[in-house]
Design a protein that fits this description.
Low-confidence stretches: none
Largest sheet: 9 strands, mixed
Structural class: alpha/beta
Strand content: 15-25%
CATH topology of the largest domain: Rossmann fold
Distance between the termini: 28 Å
Mean pLDDT: 93
Number of domains: 2
Radius of gyration: 26 Å
CATH class of the largest domain: Alpha Beta
Order of helices and strands: EHEEHEHEHEEEEEHEHEHHEHEHHHHE
Length: 389
């Protein structure tokens, strides 16, 4: 009998010829979050984490729950593949539990094992009933004993803990995430990280005309998101001078559209430097004036890279629910000075005309304004401090 954590893969199992690429990245990510004294053993559809003895099991589980690519996490035992061992381990796992109902759930991956899954359930279940005053119950029992028969070894455990699902971070390339201190853009970043892409963050601020609160909040949000992608980089872009030029020289109702078009241009320059393949925003269709379909079209017109909008069909309630789940809600709910609210128009355009916007931009020295922003950029890096470093 050996201690083992069984990590069942999520959609990696659906990959075909390039499945090894996804599994290798998952194992590299596991090496980052796990203690050095464990053995990571690849198997088809699952990864085993073997250890002789571990302290802080709860901390290990908490770390594993943030690794994308894992469907569920099962802490149990590796035993010989024979029915006597299954009965023995079931007895050990149940003897200290205060329960009334149970079930045995067997998965016979190794079809050469002579006893079929249903028969294993029956034999082990009868053994449990003889030794404990328990009742078998197939739906919603107090405890379930899971048996996975793989080859000469099998794995037995009594709890499945949901993992983060998704794809291992690093398999989908890099993106530039335009992040604010609000609710939406951090959740959009989380959604993209879950699809295996790494986010490089860009935050536009209006200091010294606004406080440092938005920067501090964004840094807190990125520290949270770094739990899922292990390392992060943040570009802090001073935007106030460019905004003042827009305010002084262009139609006030188009300010927000113009702000966002310049943000896209600057983010693409950073993307080129970072070899990123797309931009990410927290846009939700129709949520605010700049996110109407026509305004999204006008903003997109300056983009050469794809702009990914993972929240485009989400409402605010759905976004808030995820923020609570990943612990960004309490950070984003604090008041902050958003750069788009600085010098914002009283009546923003909700259905902008592209030709009119282009004509307004001709009034600006766009290249020099962008160059000024780029010269003053500051860069910060974040590394998640795992419990076992």
């Amino acid at each position: 009998m050996n201690n083992v954590i069984i990590l069942h893969h999520h959609e990696i199992t659906l990959k075909k010829k390039n499945r090894n690429f996804f599994e290798k990245q998952l194992h590299n990510n596991l090496k980052i979050v796990l203690p050095k004294n464990v053995e990571i053993v690849p198997q088809f559809g699952r990864t085993l984490v073997k250890f002789s003895e571990l302290d802080n099991n709860n901390l290990i589980i908490d770390s594993l729950k943030k690794v994308f690519g894992i469907a569920n996490i099962c802490v149990g035992y590796e035993v010989e593949s024979n029915i006597e061992k299954f009965c023995e381990m079931s007895f050990e796992m149940l003897k200290e539990k205060n329960v009334l109902t149970f079930k045995i759930d067997t998965n016979r991956v190794d079809k050469s094992f002579p006893i079929k899954s249903m028969d294993v359930n029956k034999i082990v279940g009868e053994f449990v009933c003889r030794n404990f005053s328990l009742k078998a119950k197939m739906q919603n029992p107090d405890v379930a004993i899971y048996i996975e028969i793989i080859d000469e070894n099998s794995y037995i455990y009594s709890q499945k803990i949901y993992g983060a699902n998704g794809l291992p971070v690093g398999v989908s390339g890099k993106t530039i995430s335009l992040i604010s201190a609000g609710f939406d853009s951090p959740i959009a970043s989380y959604k993209i990280i879950k699809r295996g892409a790494k986010c490089i963050f860009v935050h536009f601020h209006s200091r010294p005309y606004t406080s440092e609160n938005s920067i501090l909040q964004v840094e807190s949000l990125i520290k949270n998101l770094t739990q899922y992608q292990f390392e992060s980089k943040l570009y802090l872009v001073p935007f106030a001078n460019l905004q003042q030029n827009i305010v002084s020289n262009t139609n006030q109702k188009l300010r927000i559209i113009l702000y966002r078009r310049f943000m896209v241009r600057i983010a693409e320059i950073i993307a080129q430097k970072e070899s990123a393949l797309a931009l990410v925003t927290g846009d939700s269709l129709g949520q605010v004036a700049s996110q109407t379909l026509k305004n999204i079209f006008v903003i997109n017109e300056v983009a050469n890279l794809p702009i990914l909008r993972p929240l485009i069909g989400f409402d605010k309630e759905e976004i808030m629910k995820i923020a609570i789940e990943i612990n960004t809600y309490n950070i984003s709910k604090e008041p902050f000075d958003d750069c788009c609210s600085y010098l914002s128009p009283r009546t923003p355009e909700t259905w902008a005309n592209l030709n009119e916007v282009i004509e307004e931009e001709k009034k600006l020295d766009s290249k020099n304004l962008i160059d000024e922003c780029l010269k003053e950029i500051k860069v910060k890096t974040f590394s998640y401090q795992f419990f076992f470093e």
